């Protein structure tokens, strides 16, 4: 190497070491903004997408906190009021008690009460169908948290891959003249989006697991209280003329007429008496 170039390199290194106390302060001053903007336009777009996903996850978290409150799913006193009304033969009062307190439990109980006149088996089937529908409704928005938790790392990885492509492209265009420092700078800029994706994904998946367990527990409690409230229906017959499903009605079919009883047939002769 030319001795003159070596001299200038040593001079620049000495200046950098002499002013080392002032440059870190400037770097720390704008460090966070520099890291955020270091990914270039592609990295900035991906970070904006991650910010949008984090806002959606925060909204879903707030929505589930409000929706999965016990008072919204299992209001106090509804199941016992319905049970007492059915025990005393007042189904209209049980229906009114459910409508006064709209909730998941009320919807399930109303589904069972709507089949009251058809017997216990129809009531039980209606309750099971309503429980499945309510569980699916509660889980529908929670599933979005799982989607966000799975998409966010992929979006961050996309930013990392594109950043790595740009970093190695710079090395290729300079025909290897770019040093390890330049390559390291490109790599750390590319990893910013991966960090952002993980920051969004980890809380989203944690909230998803907690909310899913909460829904399972609440639906199990709704099923128990529904069975307890509607239990008096087991001991009462159906009020309509329709038979209770699953039970074969006992009907007396008319016996076919005997040949001797047909119109115009011969009259039966008494058997001869023995001598």
Key words describing this protein structure:
single chain, 275 residues, 10 helices, disordered N terminus
Description:
- The protein is an all-alpha fold.
- It has one domain.
- Helix content is 72%, strand content 0%.
- The chain is rod-shaped.
- The N and C termini lie far apart (153 Å).
Please tell me the overall pLDDT.
75
How much of the sequence lies in strands comes to under 5%
Total strand segments:
0
Low-confidence stretches: 2-30, 240-255
Helix/strand order:
HHHHHHHHHH
Short account of what is shown:
The protein has helices at 3-18, 23-29, 31-37, 40-67, 70-73, 78-87, 91-100, 104-113, 120-173, 180-230. The protein is mostly helical and 275 residues long.
How is the topology of this model organized?
Layout: H1 3-18, H2 23-29, H3 31-37, H4 40-67, H5 70-73, H6 78-87, H7 91-100, H8 104-113, H9 120-173, H10 180-230
């Amino acid at each position: 190497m030319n001795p003159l170039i070596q001299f200038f390199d040593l001079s620049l290194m000495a200046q950098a070491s002499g002013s080392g106390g002032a440059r870190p302060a400037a770097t720390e001053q704008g460090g966070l903004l520099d890291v955020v903007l270091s990914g270039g336009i592609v990295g900035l777009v991906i970070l904006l997408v991650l910010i949008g996903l984090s806002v959606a996850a925060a909204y879903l978290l707030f929505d589930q906190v409000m929706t999965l409150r016990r008072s919204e799913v299992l209001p106090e006193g509804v199941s016992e009021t319905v049970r007492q009304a059915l025990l005393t033969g007042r189904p209209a009062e049980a229906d009114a008690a459910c409508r006064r307190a709209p909730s998941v439990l009320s919807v399930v109980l109303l589904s069972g009460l709507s089949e009251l006149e058809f017997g216990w088996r129809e009531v039980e089937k209606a309750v099971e169908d309503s429980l499945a529908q309510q569980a699916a409704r509660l889980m529908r928005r929670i599933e979005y948290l799982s989607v966000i938790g799975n998409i966010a790392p992929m979006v961050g990885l996309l930013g990392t891959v594109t950043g790595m492509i740009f970093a190695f492209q710079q090395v290729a265009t300079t025909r290897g003249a770019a040093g390890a420092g330049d390559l390291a700078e490109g790599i750390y800029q590319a990893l910013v989006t991966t960090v952002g994706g993980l920051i969004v994904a980890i809380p989203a998946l944690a909230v998803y697991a907690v909310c899913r367990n909460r829904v399972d527990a609440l639906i199990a409690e709704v099923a128990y209280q529904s069975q307890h409230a509607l239990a008096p229906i087991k001991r009462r017959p159906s009020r309509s003329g329709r038979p209770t499903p699953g039970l074969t009605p006992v009907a007396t079919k008319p016996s076919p007429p005997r040949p001797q009883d047909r119109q115009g047939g011969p009259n039966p002769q008494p058997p001869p008496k023995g001598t």
